[in-house]
Amino acid sequence: MSVQAGALNVSESIMYHKAIAIITCDSPTSVYYSHRNLEWVYIQNMPARLILKTIFPHIIYDMAAFLFFIARGRTKDFIKAKWDALKGLKKALKKRKQIQKAMTVEVDYIWRLLERELFFTRLTRRLK
Asked: CA dihedral defined by 70, 43, 9, 116, rounded to 10 degrees?
């Protein structure tokens, strides 16, 4: 545990998202918020140097997810999520400046933390 400038960092902590307990997997709500927020979190938090390393896998994941949600009958929800993420891009970029300016860890540390999950592994888990 460490304390920095009024913030408490507890690396062993686990957070549970209350709303997700009532939102079913692949429901219109889960598809919309998951895929809208995915773009905002990526844009706001990914250091520029890592965007260069991750943008193509990110795009491939988005394309594969699009095909997945077509098959699940959630095309409209997925497209709306991406469209709304695009509409919020200006605000996300403004927030990105604040987040990146306040970053206190090395980019290489973040790179080591990123999960290297293959798409097909994730897809197999989702289809169970």
From this structure: 60
Q: Which alpha helices (H) appear in the chain, and where do they start and end?
A: 28-45, 48-71, 75-87, 89-101, 107-113, 119-127
Q: Report which of 36, 27, 26 is spatially closest to residue 125, judged by C-alpha positions.
A: 26
Task: Quote the tokens at residue 44.
Answer: 């706001």
> What pLDDT, on the 0 to 100 scale, is given for residue 119?
62
- Quote the tokens at residue 12: 């062993």
**Cβ contact 99:45 at 8 Å:** yes
Each residue's pLDDT tens digit, 20-65: 555 677 889 999 999 999 999 999 999 999 999 999 989 998 999 9
Average pLDDT value for the chain? 85
Euclidean distance between CA atoms 112 and 58, whole angstroms: 17
| 37: region left, alpha or beta (phi > 0 left; psi from -120 to 50 alpha) | alpha
Q: Is 7 exposed, middle or buried (0-12, 13-18, 19+ CB in 10 A)?
A: exposed
